Amino acid sequence: MAVKVLFLGPLSDLFDTAEMSLPAPLSWGQLLEAVPRTVAEQLQGERIHVACQGHVLPDKTALVALDGQEIALLPPVSGG
């Protein structure tokens, strides 16, 4: 029973990995506890969004991911 967590863009550089697997079910608090403190601080910022199963959550703190689901951690996008 696991949840796949994807770290996109600069978050993967900060964490030094693009993905990890965590036990299901997974809450927002459990996610923050599972990553290094520096990553957890970034994730709590207003500009980081969370998608579960391809849908961006309006309130990332309400995250509850079940077995087999995929979570994507989305940093701000810039471009020109």
UniProtKB/TrEMBL annotation:
Protein name: MoaD/ThiS family protein
Lineage: Bacteria, Pseudomonadati, Pseudomonadota, Alphaproteobacteria, Sphingomonadales
